[in-house]
Fold:
Amino acid sequence: MSTQSTSPSGDAKFNVCRFLRLPQLCSTCVAFSLVADMGTLRGAIGNWSMSFWCVCFAMTFIIALVECCRHPSSFPFFWYNISVTYACYAALICLSASIIYSITYVQFMPYGPNWDRAIAATAFSCIASVLYVIEVAGMRAWYELKEIFFYVHTVRPLLKVLETFVAGVIFAFLSNTSLYLHQPALEWCVAVYSICFILAAVVLLLGLAEWEYMLPGPFSIFQLVLSLLSVLLYISALVLWPLYQFSEGFGGQPQRPSDGDCRDELTYDMCAWDQRLAVAVLTAVNLLVYVADLGYWAGQVSVGTEDQPRDS
Structure:
């Protein structure tokens, strides 16, 4: 199924680059520069947040360069879908970095130059997330939507963006392999997160490239089955992860310790117990997103409709 390709007007492209790309670049650059200036005092959480801001800065720079230098016919129409999908992820990334960095590290820092840098970095990260949200919300006004079908502005891709993003945050916490390598049940939970992430990412890519309509069967049925499978897998993870992490009968630790890296003061590593709790909470959050996804596709199958691209 073909879809008409078009390009935003020169004025629209200029406005995007001038009024959004430059502030996005500046805010992410200032955020990671301030944390980098703290040296070894920035800790593991600072390194984690700084890497997120660096990725956003690099990707935004590449997108701005392509938008400013390319010829309108150089890329297929789904370039716009790709750029706005990235903006969705960047908004979530900067927002999560702001929250995690502030509540797990900044609040325990003593007042001084480094505290001022950390507060400023958090503020610029919040500004960046707002700018990316403005880009997503304002894309309809900048481009000729009567001629471009914006896949990312429909419900189903936004759910996939949320599913893959939450899974990505879970993987960041699971970088501490000591959380799960000692129990096969916990390793199963990690497998669940990986399988569901891959399935959601594949479906999202199929939608962005409009390959989903090339499948031999109805895509709505295909997506309904995948959503049901993901819900069942996440239910098992939601049961097993807290059970083996927080139940004494299964070798877990129900209470947060007050020693080691879990002291209520500035430490260079995030408390392992807090990481376990964060994974449990994020598992529940992603399960809710998958349930919403399942409900959406159940409704589509029941009425025999689904979102279709606009014909040329």
